[in-house]
Design goal:
The chain is α+β, with helices and mostly antiparallel strands. It is built from three helices and four strands; from the N terminus they run E-E-H-E-E-H-H. The protein has a four-stranded mixed beta sheet with strand order 1-2-3-4. A hairpin with a 6-residue loop joins strand 3 and strand 4.
Length: about 80
């Protein structure tokens, strides 16, 4: 969560929609908060499927990049082969 000029930006991952509602209500009920922007991402804990928040979708934000399928790239491009003496 970030706060600037009494505007709250909610970021993070949730696994149940009730968590989204509870987080928004808690932020809205905090003294001095003018507006709450929901950028929480719903992730299904079983299959990993994710849905970005409605506010993020309306603003046309891009989705996070898909993970690489190349293990060497994920480890910073290191050589995973056998070491030579």
């Amino acid at each position: 969560m970030t706060v600037r000029n009494r505007f709250v930006q909610l970021h993070g991952i949730i696994t149940i929609d009730e968590a989204r509602q509870a987080t928004i209500v808690a932020a809205e009920n905090t003294d001095g908060v003018k507006k709450v922007h929901d950028h929480l991402c719903f992730v299904d804990s079983y299959c990993g499927f994710y849905v970005v928040s409605p506010q993020t979708r309306r603003r046309g934000r891009s989705l996070p990049p898909a993970p690489s399928t190349d293990p060497a790239r994920d480890l910073g491009g290191s050589d995973l082969g056998p070491r030579r003496a």
